[in-house]
Amino acid sequence: MFKYSYIYVIVFLDLISISLIIPVWGTHLRNLGASHFHIALLGSTYSFLQFLSGTPVGALSDRYGRKIVLFVTICICAVAYFLLGCVESFILIVLIRIIQGCLKHSQLLCKTLVNDQVPPDQQTAVYGRMNGFSSLSFVIGPIIGGHLMEKSEGFYSLTCYTSVIFLINALVVWTTVPNITIKKERKSASPFNDLMEVNWKECWPAFSLKMLGAAALFAYFSSVGLAMNEKFNLSPSEAGYTGALQGLTGGSWLYWCFTRAYWW
What we know:
Structural class: mainly alpha
Keywords: Membrane, Transmembrane, Transmembrane helix, Transport
Subcellular location: Membrane
Helix content: over 70%
Largest sheet: none
Strand content: under 5%
Domain Major facilitator superfamily (MFS) profile: 3-264
Order of helices and strands: HHHHHHHHHHH
Transmembrane segments: 6-25, 37-56, 68-96, 155-177, 209-228
CATH architecture: Up-down Bundle
CATH superfamily: MFS general substrate transporter like domains
Organism: Sipha flava (yellow sugarcane aphid)
């Protein structure tokens, strides 16, 4: 258990920083004058950029090392989240979210660390614990974020706390993660060529399930906070407690139990 604890810490800090903002993100954009369409378009743009940039970021971590790429991307995201609290222009917010969409791949890189560091017979248990810590972050984060949002300059305070957590996570990465590089012969310099090597005929069911699951989660998280505010008139703290309840009862805890993720 403790041998790979640095992975769990990185996962937890990464997601708790995000969970501070998720319940109030849509409400904040509405307060700035954005329409529901603009909010949805912004979220779709972020997700599309995540899809496009995942392969290049993974290839960069193969070449320059997991530690370096993870550290640099987390530091840039820390600055980006701080800037989100400083700007009120929707155009500037879009530009910042583009940067985040291209570089926010901490969870992806943590999974590559598991593949690199953990023996195959232990990977299922490690993934189960990672999901457990992910759920824990979504229990704690929304409650804290909801209460902070109700204070003066609430969203600015949220982004400051988020940025600080990102910087702490960067420090954890720098001091604990081994810098692993993967030597691989490439026919082309383009990392997108790796996609051509995938057996799509055999793997498309798994990819389809992953895509549908991600789309459902995105649709839910991008709208639930705003809906709780506009439809049910919940305060940010009440929305935070609602989000925490979801994290507490999430399927990740069941997954942890079913994979028999013992603490060793």
